[in-house]
Amino acid sequence: MRRIFELIGPPLLVLVIILGLWSLAVRLLGIPAFVLPSPEQVFETAIIESDRLMSGFRNTLVASTVGLLAATVVGVLGAIILSTSRVLERALYPWAVVLQTVPVVALAPLFVLWVGPGFVSVVLVAFIIALFPILANTLMGLVSTDPALIDLLRMQGAGRAAIFRKIRLPNSLPYFFTGMRISAGLAVIGTIVGEMVVGRGGEKAGLGYYVVFSATQLKTDFVFATIIVSTGLGIAFFLAMVGLSSLVMGRWHESELRPST
Amino acid sequence: MTRPASLMWLQLPLLATLIVIAACAEKPKDDIISVQTDWFASTDHAALYAAELHGYFDVRNLHVEIRQGGPGIRAPNDVATGRATFGLALPENIILAAAEDVELLSVFASYQESPIGLMVHESSGVLNIEDIANLTVQIFPGQVFWEVLKYETGIAPAEIAFDGSMTAWAENSDWAVQGFATTNPFDARKVGAEPRMLTATQLGFRAYAGVIFTSQSYAQENQETIQAFVAALQQGYADFLANPQPVIEYINSEVNNDFLVEVGEAAAVIMQDLAVSQETESLGLGAMNAEVWNDVATRMFEAGIVRNEVGASTLWTNEYLTSRDEQDVQ
Fold first, then answer.
1. Residue contact B141–A212, C-beta within 8 A
2. A197: nearest CB among B2, B163, B167
3. Could you tell me the pTM of the whole model?
4. Contact (CB, 8 A) for B141 and A192
5. Distance from A218 to chain B by nearest Cα, in Å?
């Protein structure tokens, strides 16, 4: 209980102070609602627009999850392939870097041409943004194993598959989960960016679509409500990765073990 | 986990900074009249650039700075926060702002009928709003005329966020795309498409467009300046409609090289019809009437776009206009 309070207490206190200051500043400085609505107004709007926010949340959640899963599968497989050969790594890794630096928003209209608008294009944006951290971190984990351990297994007659399973794979897990923590947030950001540029409207509209929708109609309170829900989704994704990391490595890796004070 | 959590305290000064930034909006210099347009310079802003080119601001001792708009620029916000003296936008935005307690006053309408609408392929055979129901519509999310028409007709076609590019529309004959009748059909023909433009008016939503507005507070204290500014706009716009070529070339060569002369020439032909009406004949270019404003405001309320009904009568005025007869006398 005490640990939970220590974990949640300080950020919760900061949140309360921020909301208080925010509300006070809006009132005292007379800031117009369309520039900065008060937190109470944002909350009220979130209630009024709850149907749209919920359906947007669902659509963004699905697209983010699919984008992150695709990035995980491709990132891990890619890292395994690159780790098997220095030549392959030298040939392909720079292109992974290029993929990361391509302005994906500029690519989005091309996705519409190639695969059509809506879900698939949005997922593609999320996938491209989320891929690199998983690929780069997992690759780093796979190749940075202790050579002495590998030699030890080789002396005992272990083959490449056994070395991979017993040394490289466990060693790469902390790196993999570091990549996943970064990519989880990025997948949500990618989805929202995709929805803003190539997303579908109506029932299939995601949170990104509603950000543009509400900004077009000068409804700053709705923009804030959408941003807060989007941020919540990003945090939920991050925490899910923290939980998964703890589940998988909690019993054996030092990064997940609690200090025995 | 404890180390990142302690960084949360950084959010306090960050929030304070954001609040200060929001509160301390950049104000225009007192002697400069800044005008924030809604998009990159084109003939849709012809009244402004014609007045600038022909020196109609200068002769009235007005130091006018025209700022080009673009994606994400919202002129009502800039005028309301004092970052610009005047703005140019759709009248729907003035009503949306009023619904958020932002008091703006429209003083000049560049278009009597909005050139905004939906562009379809000629081959689609689409002629009216009901036909659109079977298409995929690529439109900027939240576009008011579209939300109102959807509500009133009950149609619910598939929608995609408009990314500013016509390329995907050109490749799909069963798509409609948001566009401006003045410029986009020309662009579409250049990429080999055969477009049919259905303006918002043709689809059933008549509104003004290219409305130039200021804040109510500025209007109360600067009557003479607004009078002179609007007179310059009227004079410039009349010159443009009579002889558009110099203004088109000026925009292309001095303001926005991406705005092609041939696009401007095509737009100028269409503008001859959209810029004038019975009101402008009697009251002068830029005139508006209560019927159109009230209709737009009422329909926006009925469609649920604004939560409270906005009284449109205080959002516009013709009092700064000079009729043709008065101009002749002057």
1. yes
2. B163
3. 0.81
4. no
5. 6
Minimal Cβ distance to A10: which of B5, B25, B141: B5
Please name the residue of chain B whose CA is at the shortest distance from the CA of residue A116.
B168
In the predicted model, is pLDDT for residue A90 greater than 90?
no
3-class SS shares of chain A: helix, strand, coil, % to 5: 85, 0, 15
Question: Does domain B116-203 match CATH 3.40.190.10?
Answer: yes
Two tokens at A78? 């890619």
Phi, psi of B65 (to 5 degrees): -115, 115
The secondary structure element, H or E, covering residue B6 is helix B2-6
What is the rounded distance in angstroms from the CA atom of residue B234 to the CA atom of residue B225?
Answer: 14
Taking CA atoms, what residue in B is nearest to A107?
Answer: B163
CB contact under 8 A, B160 and A212: no
Q: Do A200 and B139 touch (CB under 8 A)?
A: no
Residue with tokens 């009697």: B282
Q: Which class would CATH give A60-249?
A: mainly alpha
Provide the shortest C-alpha distance from residue A252 to chain B (in Å). 18
User: Which residues, in sequence order, are CB contacts of A247 under 8 Å at separation 6+?
Assistant: none
Distance from CA of B12 to the nearest CA of A (A): 7
Q: Say yes or no for a CB contact (<8 Å) between B161 and A209.
A: yes
Residue B323 in tokens: 């009729």
Domain residue ranges of chain B, discontinuous segments joined by + = 28-113+207-329, 116-203
Locate B216 and state its tokens.
Answer: 């109510």
The string of DSSP letters for A83-101 reads HH-HHHHHHHHHHHHHHHH
Residue B164 has pLDDT above 90, yes or no: no
Helices (H), A30-146: 39-48, 50-84, 86-101, 104-115, 119-143
For residue B143, list chain A residues with Cβ-Cβ distance below 8 A: 216
Phi, psi of B155 (to 5 degrees): -75, 150
Axis-axis angle for helices B144-153, B91-99 (nearest 10): 80
**Model confidence pLDDT, tens digit, residues B200-213:** 999 999 999 999 99
Chain B residues whose beta carbon lies within 8 Å of the beta carbon of residue A109: 163-165, 167-168
CATH architecture of the domain with range B28-113+207-329: 3-Layer(aba) Sandwich (3.40)
- ipTM for the predicted complex comes to 0.73
C-alpha closest to that of B310 among B97, B87, B77: B97
Give which of B118, B151, B160 to mutate to test A binding, by max A Cβ within 10 Å. B160
Domain B28-113+207-329 identical in fold to domain B116-203: yes
Rounded to whole angstroms, the Cα distance separating A257 from B261 reads: 69
Q: What is the pLDDT of residues B267-279, one digit of tens each?
A: 999 999 999 998 8
Domain range list for chain A: 60-249
